[in-house]
Design brief:
1% strand; 467 residues; two-stranded antiparallel sheet
């Protein structure tokens, strides 16, 4: 395969070219040699996660019907690709943690399509694989939440319809309040189920039918919150318009003052993002732009105007920082990933980006992806100023997913680091002391008992003892 840069083309002989074509094109398409799958499960699950994230990043909100339909088709294609890869992982890793994660992600996809029963099937599969593990705990919570909120919608919707009918016949303050409160609970339940279109429609229905109720202004405000911080929609027909409506419909309320500040802040941040994006484009070499349009590879070091790479780095960092301030973590993560790809020769900036990606994943409770990002930093930039922080936070992530052995090793590593600051040294020491307890004197330390779901208070409850 010929690799192009703006300054020269790499020349290779025909035999070498044939080998590269075979490796880059034939092998990925067949995915196996001699009937044996050569793609490791860790790569499959990462590819599935990438497809899932790609689907999440596609905005399907548009006033143009054709554009909206095209975006929805691209999003569904990405979800389908993720689903297919997750199912492959389940088939090849029936009982290990990769299968549990795949079931969990498939359940998330079904929830996004409001297919609650199918989501519950995959949650239940996790519980059956490992009843005491991290994913089992998350799955049980997921099943309970779906059951609770579906029942709540059914009960409160009936309550609303009943009291609304009574109020329409014989209006009283009591029936007005009961009907409004029930409708508000329905909207909250839809939001908890992540059925954001129904949540928005129900909140808006409350504003229309019960404009004098206290919950009306809260409902209108929550519509803006959903658009801004769940759907990342800042348009006039979305979050912007919803927040403006708070000030217009309820001008003398506390929420009206809040949205004015919110809109001013958002406008400033989005304006800055656009300015930094324009700055990046101005500092890209014209030949690099032309080659990229043709699908040619351009070396990161060849993409930017002479002496402008530091400015480009700062622009990417500011864009990501602004997205983070808007709580738009997917866009912030994607910005850092573009920096890693397009400025890979700027080692300190790339190390910082790896850490920021890990930190954002951690804040989003995507702990395994955070662990991978911290691994990337430790592998590619072991001398980074973020090394110590990454070691510690990676251990915290392992603890969060109940991989206590890996957490123990991580905290021990953090304590042994000789260079740099260690602000969490006291916390790490306390955790290690707790993990190294053996209260029942059965030879198994507390972290080993935790990881295996056994008791450190009973010497007969031991890992592998069939408890």
């Amino acid at each position: 395969m010929t690799r192009f840069t703006p300054s020269f083309a790499l020349r290779i002989d025909q035999n070498y070219l044939f080998i590269i074509i075979l490796v880059l094109f034939v092998v990925p398409h067949i995915g196996c040699i001699g009937g044996v799958d050569i793609v490791p499960l860790s790569a499959k699950i990462q590819n599935a996660d990438n497809a899932f994230e790609e689907a999440e990043a596609i905005s399907t909100r548009s006033d143009d019907p054709e554009e909206k339909q095209e975006a929805q088709a691209r999003q569904q294609k990405a979800y389908d690709r993720a689903m297919s890869l997750y199912l492959e992982v389940i088939a090849k890793d029936a009982k290990a943690k990769y299968a549990q994660r795949a079931h969990y992600q498939i359940a998330r996809i079904y929830k996004k399509h409001y297919e609650w029963d199918k989501a519950n099937e995959h949650y239940q599969a996790i519980v059956e694989l490992d009843p005491t593990g991290y994913y089992a705990s998350e799955a049980k919570s997921g099943i309970a939440s779906i059951r609770k909120n579906r029942q709540l919608i059914k009960d409160e919707l009936a309550n609303y319809q009943n009291y609304k009918a009574i109020y329409d016949t014989e209006p009283t303050d009591e029936t007005y309040a009961i009907a409004a409160n029930s409708l508000y609970k329905v909207a909250q339940a839809y939001e908890a189920l992540e059925n954001f279109p129904e949540a928005i429609a129900t909140f808006e229905r409350l504003v229309e039918e019960f404009p004098n109720h206290d919950k009306a202004v809260q409902s209108q405000y929550q519509v803006g919150n959903i658009y801004f911080y769940k759907l990342y929609d800042y348009t006039n027909s979305g979050g912007w318009g919803a927040f403006v409506a708070v000030a217009e419909k309820f001008p003398d309320t506390y929420e009206a003052g809040q949205v004015k500040n919110e809109l001013n802040k958002t406008k400033d941040l989005l304006t800055e993002i656009k300015q930094y994006q324009d700055e990046i484009q101005r500092n890209k070499r014209k030949t690099a732009v032309e080659y990229e349009k043709l699908g040619r590879y351009v070396l990161p070091s060849e993409k930017w105007l002479m002496g402008k790479t530091d400015l480009v780095v700062q622009s990417y960092q500011q864009i990501a920082n602004n997205w983070e301030k808007l709580r738009n973590y997917p866009n912030a993560i994607e910005t850092y990933k573009v920096l890693i790809r397009d400025l890979s020769h700027k080692k300190y900036a790339v190390a910082d980006a790896f850490y920021q990606v890990g930190s954002l994943y951690q804040q989003s409770a995507q702990y395994e992806r955070a662990i991978q990002a911290f691994d990337d930093l430790l592998e590619n930039a072991p001398e980074s100023t973020w090394r110590n922080e990454s070691v510690y936070q990676q251990a915290v992530c392992y603890r969060s997913i109940r991989e206590f052995g890996a957490a123990y090793k991580g905290f021990k590593t953090y304590m042994s680091l000789a260079k740099g600051d260690r602000p969490y040294l006291r916390e790490a020491e306390q955790i290690i002391r707790q993990y190294e307890l053996d209260q029942d004197q059965d030879g198994y330390l507390f972290y080993q008992e935790l990881e295996n779901g056994t008791s450190d208070q009973d010497p007969n409850s031991q890992p592998g003892a069939g408890n």
